[in-house]
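Quick one - inputs below.
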Amino acid sequence: QKEVEQDPGPLSVPEGAIVSLNCTYSNSAFQYFMWYRQYSRKGPELLMYTYSSGNKEDGRFTAQVDKSSKYISLFIRDSQPSDSATYLCASALGGGATNKLIFGTGTLLAVQP
Amino acid sequence: DAGVIQSPRHEVTEMGQEVTLRCKPISGHNSLFWYRQTMMRGLELLIYFNNNVPIDDSGMPEDRFSAKMPNASFSTLKIQPSEPRDSAVYFCASSLTDSNQPQHFGDGTRLSIL
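Output:
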């Protein structure tokens, strides 16, 4: 079993829809949770970074962590065609840059105009 | 500001050949990471350096893989001899160690071993 599991999709939604992307993790010691966005033939770029449980909002994006169920979510409101990309969740034991990030395999999202 | 720069962007070579991937981290960053991405296994950490010193190489798959960081602005990942199963996209990332700043990724090297 991978430490971080993610549905690979693909997920196709119409423009303007609310998108829900999810991951589960197995290591209860994970404290830091991240979402990266990766466009085709590009490197991952950090979208959201959260510590422990709770919500964090940034514009149209909301990250949610439920440590009791080991569940990580990313919500995208008013989705746009430019949001079409692969979304990777990642977890780490600590917050320092040298703490090993464990990535999910990514969910491919397509937002149809 | 220039981001993480990787070269080459694409590499196609025959099995058994030596492959060298290169990375220039963001200036001032003191941690550097090498990742491999495949459809089946996703993004996996191979090795990371802190202040040019290898800290954790537990993700390096075999002795055929080696990585060096001779100075703060340059790192290489070498595969010798290469095999078809090494075909993947290899990413380099850099960050500041003593903060919660994220890892910044390059655009990767797409490697195909025939």
